[in-house]
Amino acid sequence: MSPPGGPETSPQETSSQEIPAAQTCPAEIAPPRISSPETRPADTPRRETLPPEIFPPQTTRPETSPPGSSSGRGEPLILIQDLWKTYTLGAVEIHALRGVDLTIYPNEYVAIMGPSGSGKSTLMNLIGCLDTPTQGSYYLGGRKVSDMNDDELARIRNREIGFVFQTFNLLARATALRNVELPLIYRGLPARERREHAMRALEEVELTSRANHKPNELSGGQRQRVAIARALVTRPRLLLADEPTGNLDSGTSAEIMDLFDKLHREGNTVVLVTHERDIAVHARRVVTIHDGKVSSDARTDTRAKAGAHAGCDAKAESVAGTQSDAGAKSVAGAQPVVEAQSVAGEGALPAPR
Ligand SMILES: Nc1ncnc2c1ncn2[C@@H]1O[C@H](COP(=O)(O)OP(=O)(O)O)[C@@H](O)[C@H]1O
Ligand SMILES: [Mg+2]
User: Fold this and answer.
1) I need a labelling partner for 238 at 20 to 30 A (CA). Which of 55, 74, 135, 225 fits?
2) Is any ligand 1 atom within 6 A of the Cβ of residue 33?
């Protein structure tokens, strides 16, 4: 299990920070540019990087429809075709993704698993429009984002995507409320409106009583709930989380996963990366990545879900084989995905898009 994250321990939250002006980039909430597979780049934030989900849009461009995107389930929210990402380090080329195909429909709940270095974060960063592919296409909600420039991607991030990071990436000197307001500040919303939306988002994560607390006055789980509220406040179409429980103890992880479960039930599309089976079992579908390619894509069945809710042991048993080195066939209680599962949303969140 992951090591517990104490309330005072996150390095990126103890550095000196001010609430950013609209034109500056708060590095603490910048995308995690990866320097090595398991070292989160939030440890070494880059000031020159654009802020992730919140930088104000600059330009738009005509949108193109994805080919063959229609199906009985309507339009896919995510349509990825033959996606490649190659990093070049001097003379060395690292093929982090080698032709990924992936389709995700609205209201799905998907876990992406795989061994360290298999390309999970690279894929999430592409899905989250934090980075661009070397080759291949990615359509989000019918719009081709794989060819967009930085400004266009920033707009998509601000409008369509909420991203939750393993290390929370909160501004240390800002209150929980202010942290949650940030995406709306970049969007240029008036103060009163911002505050209302932020308080509502904090309410959804049951943290209104801590609205005026700063991150170092909050537990790890509370910090992550603030980060989730920040991801939700723009009412994104897509909620992404890269190892969201990676810095939390098991009890707190369970609370955070209950929260993701609730958000999914309420109609949100949730995609999360995890290497822990008892986290992945919360999802309705498990996509496994090996060496930059999808090696299995399976849906967890009702029996597995029932086991998951019965307790920890049942959880582990019900997803035996969803480990990163297991293929689709070995996923106990899971079936290959032929058509993505339809999940009835109960009162999808109102969207100030
Ligand atoms: N910015 C980068 N520059 C060079 N190589 C990278 C970069 N980010 C990731 N990689 C490499 O790409 C591969 C996939 O990394 P990553 O997506 O972080 O894997 P995972 O999240 O599954 O651990 C690894 O070999 C990693 O070292
Ligand atoms: Mg990773």
Assistant:
1) 135
2) yes
